Each structure stands twice: as structure tokens, then as C-alpha cells.
């Protein structure tokens, strides 16, 4: 597959010039190894998954590191977290050596615990999600953004089926000791039917025969491993009584579609889940744009007790907000901006932009003006207007 430039490249190179170690986390198969090898082509490379390599590390970690040529990419470091203490010792012995250690990890919980304990102040930490549309225009609602699905869309169903199995057997079990993976798989499928909804753990637990604490733990696993996006309510109430529950989306719309049994564009267009899946795509693209440029995640929703709801609120610093309604239509109309127009007067303390983000039209016709304060923009072009 031809290399696709990632937005995170510049931040990774900048970090490597200032920190002894750089750690790149993110979901399995999002392109972490390819990105590091592209940015640092002269680095030695070790995959920490092979049993013999893991045995060498555990039997003599100090000698293993001493034999490595620097800089070195240590791939899937979560499989040998004990190495972090020895890498810390190497860094402390030669703090002037920058960019020596380039680490990846597919599963964040144990890795991040090790970083906080062993590498605080010594490592720059980044997260890589699958392709954004800005990086790869082949990203779509049905395919999502995983590099291998983009490269071979005809085997999309096989790839996602295999990905779920690998994710369950490796990443989930690495975080918590789940014995019944079949139930966790059903949990994923049920969760996909709740995309775009306010999170109700009791309603999720009932069909699966699980307790609310178990649902809470499993949702945490999905969030830790970057499979879902939890969108909290906006922290300002704008003088209104707000709903405090978060909304939930899958980080990859292709994976969510697969879990819902949607395998073709025709079935997607007819699906009752088209709207929520489109919302999830917009949420994912916003977060990718933020973290792939080295910024923190900052995405919220608004919903008050009277039913006024705005899909997304994006803080932009300096007392600015962007308000977004995501609509799975290629023909935006004024009525779609109603909730934005209703909320805008209550946000007087902020400088605001408001958009209805929609599906692109097949022609280049200009969308009608929705209101003096609200503009329409296709999701494929929203970043030149929004972020």
C-alpha cells in the first residue's frame, strides 16, 4: 500500500527533537508502525510480540537494550511493560540523547500506567487514530478509516470480522479478565444500535443480562482502547437546565456499520441508523483533527430538559465556540438549523460559529443559506470552515 501522509508527522518529529522517548498509542491497525518507520527511517525496529523476543526481554532486559542500535522503534511495548523501567534508566544516564526511543502500544491502560510511573517528564505521548478524510479522501461512512480497509475495500467484511476477533482476544483480555467473550461480542453489537443516543447503562445492561457496574467497566475498556467516543455534555448551562448524560459513538464508522450488519452503500442509505452513524463520522473526524495535530480532545454535546439539543459543541479557545448539527442529507434546508438558532442567543458570552454539517452533493451546486448566523458545509470540507 502506498504511504499516506499523516497529520501527526510534524508533531512526532518535533517531539523526537526535544524528548528522549516518544510514545505513540492508538487502536490496533491504525498505522502506528508505518508512521514511525516513515518519520524515522534510520531507526532500528523490534516487534515485541514474537515469543522468542519476549523471552529475551524478560530474561535479560538490560542486555537486550544495550545491544539495540539507537534510535530504536519498540513496537507493541505493552507486551513487555517491564522494559519501561530500564528505558528510564538509559534515559537518565544520557538525558542529552533525544529521540532515542520510539515506542508504540495498541492498548493504552497498562501502557499508560507504566508511562505515568516510569517515564513522567521523559516521554512525549501521542495517539493515532485511523485515517481522517483530510489524510485520505477514500475515507467514507461505510468504509471508515482503517488503512487496510481503505486499501482493500472488497474484503471489508472479512477484515472487520477478523479485527473484532483479534481485538477481543488480545486487547480486551489485556485490560480485564473476561471469560465470556461471546457476551462481550454481543455487547458490541447492542452498543452499535445505541450510537448517537444519550448513554443509558441500565437499558444496555437489560438485553444482555449484565449488571450496570459490568457495563460501566466494559464501556471503559472500549474507551481506553479507542474503540468508542464518549461525548460529554457541555459544561456551561447557558441559563438552561441541561441533561448531564454523555452521548456515545464508535470511533470508526466502518466498524459500527459492520456491527450493524450494513455491508453495502444501498443498505446504508436505507438503514434507520444512517443518521446516527453520520453523526459518529462527524464526531470522529473532529477528534482526529484535534489529536492528529497534537491537541487535546475537546468535543461536547448540548441537551436541556426541555428537549433543545445540539449535536456538537467544539471549544476553540479564547472564548470561542463552534456549534454543529450533523445531518445525513445532501440537501440542507433552513429547518435543519432550528436548534442552532434557538441555542445561539443563550451563548452570548462567546464568539460563535454555527454549522449544519451534511453529506456532500454529487454536483457542485451551492447549498442554500440556512440563516444569517448558520452556514451549511459538507463534512468533507468542514475543517476549512470549522477547526
Q: Assign an overall shape.
A: globular
> Largest beta sheet: what is the strand line-up?
2-3-4-1-5
Helix content: 25-40%
Largest sheet: 5 strands, parallel
Please indicate the count of domains: 2
How many strand segments? Answer: 12
Q: Show unreliable segments.
A: none
Radius of gyration: 22 Å
Mean pLDDT: 91
Compressed to H and E, one letter per element, the order equals HEHEHHEHEHEHHHHHEEHHHEEEHEE
Characterize the structure shown.
The protein has 387 residues and is α/β, with parallel strands linked by helices. Helix content is 38%, strand content 16%. β9 and β10 form a beta hairpin. α10 crosses α11. The model has no long low-confidence stretch (mean pLDDT 91).
Please specify the SSE layout and strand pairing.
Elements: H1 9-16, E1 21-25, H2 32-39, E2 44-47, H3 51-59, H4 61-66, E3 72-75, H5 83-93, E4 101-105, H6 108-118, E5 123-127, H7 147-151, H8 156-175, H9 181-192, H10 201-208, H11 212-224, E6 228-231, E7 247-250, H12 253-259, H13 265-270, H14 274-291, E8 300-303, E9 309-315, E10 320-327, H15 338-343, E11 351-358, E12 375-378
Parallel strand pairs: 1-4, 1-5, 2-3, 3-4, 10-11, 11-12
Antiparallel strand pairs: 6-7, 8-9, 9-10
Helix pairs in contact: 10-11
Amino acid at each position: 500500500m502506498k504511504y499516506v501522509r499523516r497529520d501527526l508527522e510534524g508533531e512526532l518529529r518535533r517531539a523526537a527533537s526535544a524528548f528522549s522517548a516518544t510514545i505513540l498509542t492508538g487502536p490496533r491497525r491504525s498505522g502506528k508502525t508505518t508512521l514511525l518507520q516513515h518519520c524515522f527511517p534510520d531507526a532500528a525496529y523490534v516487534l515485541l510480540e514474537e515469543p522468542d523476543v519476549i523471552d529475551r526481554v524478560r530474561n535479560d532486559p538490560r542486555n537486550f537494550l544495550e545491544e539495540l542500535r539507537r534510535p530504536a522503534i519498540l513496537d507493541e511495548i505493552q507486551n513487555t511493560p517491564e522494559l519501561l523501567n530500564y528505558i528510564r534508566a538509559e534515559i537518565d544516564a544520557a538525558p542529552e540523547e533525544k529521540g532515542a526511543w520510539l515506542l508504540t502500544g495498541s492498548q493504552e491502560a497498562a501502557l499508560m500506567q507504566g508511562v505515568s510511573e516510569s517515564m513522567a517528564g521523559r516521554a512525549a505521548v501521542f495517539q493515532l487514530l485511523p485515517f481522517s478524510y483530510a489524510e485520505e479522501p477514500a475515507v467514507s461512512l461505510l468504509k471508515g478509516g482503517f488503512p487496510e480497509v481503505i486499501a482493500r475495500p472488497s474484503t471489508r467484511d472479512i477484515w472487520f470480522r477478523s479485527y473484532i476477533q483479534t481485538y477481543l482476544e488480545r486487547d480486551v483480555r489485556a485490560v480485564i479478565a473476561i471469560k465470556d467473550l461471546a457476551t462481550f461480542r454481543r455487547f458490541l453489537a447492542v452498543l452499535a444500535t445505541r450510537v448517537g443516543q444519550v448513554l443509558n447503562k441500565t437499558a444496555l445492561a437489560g438485553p444482555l443480562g449484565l449488571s450496570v457496574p459490568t457495563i460501566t467497566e466494559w464501556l471503559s475498556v472500549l474507551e481506553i482502547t479507542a474503540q468508542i467516543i464518549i461525548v460529554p455534555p457541555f459544561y456551561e448551562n447557558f441559563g438552561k437546565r441541561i441533561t448531564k448524560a454523555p452521548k456515545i459513538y464508535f470511533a470508526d464508522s466502518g466498524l459500527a456499520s459492520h456491527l450493524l450488519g450494513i455491508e453495502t452503500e444501498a443498505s446504508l442509505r436505507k438503514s434507520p441508523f444512517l443518521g446516527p452513524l453520520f453523526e459518529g463520522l462527524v464526531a470522529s473526524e473532529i477528534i482526529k483533527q484535534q489529536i492528529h495535530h497534537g491537541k487535546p480532545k475537546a468535543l461536547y454535546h448540548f441537551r436541556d430538559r426541555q428537549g433543545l439539543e445540539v449535536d456538537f459543541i467544539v471549544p476553540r479557545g479564547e472564548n470561542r465556540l463552534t456549534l454543529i448539527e450533523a445531518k445525513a442529507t445532501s440537501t440542507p434546508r433552513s429547518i435543519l438549523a432550528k436548534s442552532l438558532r434557538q441555542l445561539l442567543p443563550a451563548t452570548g458570552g462567546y464568539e460563535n460559529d454555527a454549522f449544519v454539517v451534511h453529506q456532500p452533493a454529487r454536483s457542485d451546486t451551492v447549498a442554500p443559506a440556512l440563516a444569517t448566523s448558520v452556514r451549511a458545509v459538507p463534512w468533507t470540507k468542514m475543517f476549512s470552515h470549522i477547526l
